[in-house]
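Usage

Read records sequentially. Each one opens with the input sequence:
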Amino acid sequence: MLSQKAKYALRALLVMATAKPDDEPLHIGAIAEQEGISRKFLEAILLELRKHGVLTSRRGAAGGYRLARPADQILFGEVIRIIDGPLAPLPCASVTAFHECADCPEPDRCSIRWLMQQVRDATAGVLDHCTLADALGKRPSARRGRNASRALPGPANTSRSSARRRPMKRDEAAAD
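and closes with the structure output:
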């Protein structure tokens, strides 16, 4: 599961990815306020990302943070690994941080490990192919102006007459 720290890191990076390359660096306070993140917590996150080469920073009144590389070169998988560590749900399924489980006598024959390796590979397959720029292009707000009704699943995406349905009775709702 994605930690709150990794989620905040991604949100902050997405804010920075919307800035133009020649803009001034973004202040921590501005990002924290915009995203509703504790300034102190965000500072620790951004320092970690800077240490790993995802961000650059500048001190002083005109200081702040900016992406070290273009948004189309920063992968979600890279950021999550920096903040949360390996993507594998179990240490025995990790490529980079393998540890045998204490209660498993034969890891090479373990069906649970096999499945968790599949989960790891599928997760990495998605996260290692999605950049900040890709995610910005998929924001729901980017679609609002264009055929917003197509993006909504279910009854909200139907005609007005079908949207006016009778309310469910209590026993009908329980059947769901």
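Summary fields computed downstream for this record:
- Residues 111-127 form the longest helix (17 residues).
- The domain at 4-137 is CATH 1.10.10.10 (Arc Repressor Mutant, subunit A).
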